[in-house]
Structure formats: C-alpha cells, structure tokens
Amino acid sequence: TRSQSSISSYFQAP
Amino acid sequence: CSKEGIMLQGMDEFHISLVEFFLSKRSFESYALCHDLCMSLPIDSLATVLKKANDDDVCTLKAGHKAKVLTVAIETRDQPWLVSKHDVPFIDLGSEYLVISRIPYDAKITVWSTRFARLAHELHQLSGSLDIQIIHEGARFTALDEGSGKKGCFIFRRAKVVDEYRDSEDDEPAGAIIHEFHRYFHKATSLRVSTKYLVHASKRAPLSSKVSVLMKEDQPLLVQYDFYEGVLKFYIAPRIAD
Fold first, then answer.
1. In this structure, are strands B210-215 and B189-194 parallel, antiparallel, or unpaired?
2. Mutate to test the interface with B, among A1, A5, A12 (most CBs of B within 10 A)
3. DSSP character for B159?
C-alpha cells in the first residue's frame, strides 16, 4: 500500500 | 518581489502540492523596487481585485516599506482619469513559506500541454492516482480502476525528429516528445501521484504550448510551464510505499 506524502516534508522552512 | 521580478508561492490546504509562479520584470510596463519585499496575501482577495480589471486596463501594484496592504490601482487605458483603488491586506502565514532547493532531476520529458491536459483528465476519470514512468525510450502514464479492473495508459515515445514542432494548431504529432528529453534523461524513474493534482496542474495549458514533467525517485513530481514572461511550477508530493 502507498500513502500520500506531504509536500512540506520535502522543502524547508527558512 | 526582487530585482528580477515577482515570485509567488502557494500551497493547497492539504499540503500535497506547492505552486511557484515567477513573473519577470520584463512583463511589466514599468517595474520599480527599492529593496526586496516579501508579502503574504490571501489569494482569493487578490484574485477578486484583479478580476475587476478588463484586459486593456492598466493595473498598478504598490506596497511601501513596512506596508500592511498591497494597493492595486486599476486605470482605464483611454480614460486615465478613471481610476479605482483596492487594498489587499497582508496576512500572517508564519512558517508556511518554504525554500525550494534545486535538485538534479533524473528524467525530464516535454510534451504538448493540450495533450497533457487530456491525459490528466482521462486518467482522473479512472482512478485517484496514477503511475508515471520515464524510461530511455519514452514515458508512460498509467491509471488503474481497482473496482472495474479497467486500466488506462498513455505512452509517449521519444521523438525521432529533433524538432517535431507542429505546423498548425491542428497538426499535433501524436505522442511526440521534444528533444529536451535526451538532455535530461539520466535513469529510469517512476512516481505515483494523485490524478486530482495532476489535473489541476494541467489546466494551465493556455500559458504555454509545451509542458515539462521532471522526476526524481521519491521526490515531488515537477510539472513546469516555461513562457516568455516567466515560469509556472507545480510540485506534487508523491504517494509513497508504507
């Protein structure tokens, strides 16, 4: 099974 | 806002896709900036204001140092005495602004954006998610309806001719991939993403006749429209194995 990842986990907050 | 132009970033409420839109200063009749400026705006309010302008109207966007509002002045081109002004107040987005680091992608294909839009629409009818595979010979977009067992697949083969551009709007080479494919292919890559977000990204086809799809294993899918005035990028988070 696959789950939807969150886009925020790939990019950093400044 | 920077000396190069205006960069907008936005995220959907479920944090699945991130949109980055760059509009070069050359797309403005005049562009003046004293220092870099970062504003957080409610996109709905900004869109409502901008929709008040007709195609031929002159829109002036202004924000001062330490400003709390963006002022949009809309002027009728042949009646410069007729101006309406609208304030869009800033909002606090906190840490929702993200730094997008540039990564080397494993594969990139460029296809006709109208074809891409059709593909996204058709596959969305079948399933909530689709698999995108890019291999040396081409690219494959597949969706499976688990209920009925129906499978939909769009295949793009690498264009034989380097510049297989269409001569007219109706003359669209079937499944042709434009030559950039060669330059950006490093290794076979596949990703699974939500069709809903792909449909969303594909609706921007009027911006450019071509759209690029860039992939790297376990990284967000990048759907990119390049046009003279700037670039529009959609980053879509993949569905990953548990």
1. unpaired
2. A5
3. P
Rounded-to-integer distance, Cα B178 and Cα B165, Å: 8
With b for 16 or more beta-carbon neighbours within 10 A and e for fewer, the B128-165 pattern comes to: ebbbbbbeeebbbbbbbeeeeeeebebebebbeeeeee
Tokens 């410069």 belong to B80
Q: Judge: B239–A12 Cβ closer than 8 Å, yes or no.
A: no
Separation CA B164–CA B121 (nearest Å): 25
Per-residue pLDDT tens digits for B1-20: 999 999 999 989 899 999 99
Whether this model's ipTM surpasses 0.90 comes out as yes
Q: Which of B99, B192, B237 sits opposite A7 (nearest CB)?
A: B237
Which chain B positions have a beta carbon within 8 Å of A3's beta carbon? 239-240, 242
pLDDT, tens only, B110-122:
888 998 999 999 9
C-alpha of A11 from chain center:
8
pLDDT digits (tens, 9 = 90+) for B142-169: 999 888 888 998 888 776 544 444 444 4
Distance CA B3, CA B65 (A): 15
pLDDT digits (tens, 9 = 90+) for B208-229: 999 999 999 999 999 999 998 9
